[in-house]
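re: ur question from the group chat, yeah i did fold both. here u go
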Amino acid sequence: MKIGPVADSQLPVQIEAACDEMEQTYAAGRYSKITVTRNWSKHNPIISGKIARPSAYRWYLRRELIRLVQAGAVIDIIPAQERVDLSSPQLLELIDESEFDHTRKKVFLFGPERVELSLQRLEHYTGTRAEDFQRYVLLTNYQMHMDAFEQMYPDCIQPTRARVQMRAYHQRTASNDGISIVNIGVGPSNAKNFTDHLAVLRPDAMLMVGHCAGVRNHQELGDFVLASGYMRDDHVLDEALPRSVPLTPSFLLNRYLAHLLDERKLPYRFGVVYTTADRNWELTLKLKLQDLKASRSIGVDMESATVAANGFRYRIPSATLLCISDKPLHGQPKLPDVAQAFYEETKMKHLEVARDALLWARADYPGGLPNSDLRAMDEPLLGGPEERE
């Protein structure tokens, strides 16, 4: 199928037909290859990639292909190789990203075999279909936030089986522009694992909603923390992304979060979030204090920097909304009675701020948050000639 310059009224029809054809090709046992010719580009006139299970992110394909044709691109779609057998001994060779340059891709960031495996992993971990994931994703490690989400959206899609490792709930809309929430569990390994696989769905934003230890004198339990940057003591992505690479959250998401916190008169601070792999970091306090003081950190958690690092690698705008649950440096460690009271008091307002920030982002940028700050210097852009490559 070829899609070239076409009247705006006919373009959505042609793109829907193209998506139907790719789904049929996939059902027949083959991937599809998309080739995009962009005559306006001096450096990347032709970009191409292969598509696996297009139904899982049809909303993304529809949106981006329409944008490209509107800009004057010509798109060719043909059947590609047979679908990979996930039981094949060759699978690991096909998905090996040890030497993959994540800064050189955008439209087709992942090969079809990687997409195939990641979609299966997402469904295994969450107990929900990949097609049910929405464009805006909340990440947590507390069931209480899942419960609060269910109260907000009683009809949300839930796991189809009782015991899953990372429960997911989806407030699904017709165009997948609703909100998903996933309990990823505790620690940077879980955060990396889940976001590695989530990335193939190309979400518009992901927001970590968690708790942290406050380390400043004038912070109180229940105060919020917005990350201005991250100190990476998680180490799970050190080989994939050097620790010298600066990581910052999405400015737009932070702006929405700060405005909502101000509007609701909820106390918060901007500052560096220190993410560690050591849940008992207080037991080696002298070593940790050196980093905390040098970085001027205001909170310690176990996932935020990992989520931010994978958001950077995979071009997904991300941010962090943490709530201080303990202050171990000030004689307020996390203890059962105090923790439970704190959880009950904060869980709903915490999740409401996170949800409303994503809804605001959706209203302001229905086509996806701008993410030029996540692009590489030589990366093919998705837009038209006005973007200049």
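okk and heres the other one u asked abt
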Amino acid sequence: MRYVGTVSRGIRLPVITKGDDVIKIISDCIINAAESERDSFTIRDRDVIGVTESLVARSQGNYVTLADISADIAGKFPEGDVAIFAPILSRNRFCQLLRGIVNGIKGQVHIILTYPNDEVGNQLIEPMNYYLSSSKLDKECFGEDDFYSVFGEYKHPFTGVDYIQLYKSIDPQRVSVHFSNNPLSALKFAKQVIVASIHARHIHRDILEKGGAAKVVTMDQICCAPVREGAGFNPDYGVLGSNYTNENSVKLFPRGCGEFVKKLQAELFARTGRKPEVLVYGDGAFKDPACGIWELADPVVSPGFTEGLNGMPKEIKFKYVADNAAGKDAAKAVEEAIRSKDSLDRFGHSTLGTTPRRLTDLIGSLCDLTSGSGDKGTPVVYIQGYFDNYLDD
């Protein structure tokens, strides 16, 4: 009898740098891990291989400098004031980008922060303070003086940073901070707007364009093409999904992930005769219950995946069927439900409560939790049994 279901393994790799043959290195390491005396396993069809986006981007050398960002912004906004709507509160994810953006703008910079938290849940105002004090506000858009008089000073509970002051400090003479949840508020300060939101960027752009903005640029339009020879770029996501590298540069989301996953799948098939599914993954799509932060600061969980990972799971709700066997043998009822699940209504009682999410979001989140972002040294994750059910031996 089979006693183990889904298994997720972190695969250790050497340190990858620009120009490395990452397809060969990943394949070597997976095969070596499978054949190792200590941790052996059998490579099978429909196993899943997750490769972290940072590994792919590093092998591509997909970096831009803050000067590159400034040059691109200067080309898009050759003169005048610019409003920046709904940036997230992050030193790693946005502060570096903001430095480059501000340096490329000729006029005043008006940052509009959403409240009581940003798009991914970073708090700008302590929740209880917000609920008790927000009635004192008499307008949807307000400035720093109103903010501090109503809510007081607030530092991020994990970083200890006052993001209002951090963002202003980039250029105190030209940067001012305002607060609003309405994108049209940006037009009070400038007719040129950078939409800095991640997942809501399309609707925010549409609202501003329909509301009379002279020019609207989203973050996926910044560095979407190389601004100089040798500069990094991402045609799909621009600077979205970027990460702090050093004081002068950021790493972008990788390019060409669809082609990458096909090549890795083909390489492993050629060497093992097995056809695993492959995805590139970034942030997982989950929310931290303690701090309220939604992990997904990347534009997507997976920017590239093989065809077998398309779609959503179709599963029965195991415990529902067992609980409602109605006098029948519960185990037999579960077996019957699994065998007939292809004909079940996705929204019927037998499937009620199963997670209605895309496979890539679920598996990418599992990969992110397995590899972590620290010093485990496992930027590749090998998953077995994800597509198996209770009847598979």
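fwiw on the second one: Confidence is low (pLDDT under 50) at residues 347-353. The two ends are 7 Å apart (CA to CA). idk if thats what u expected
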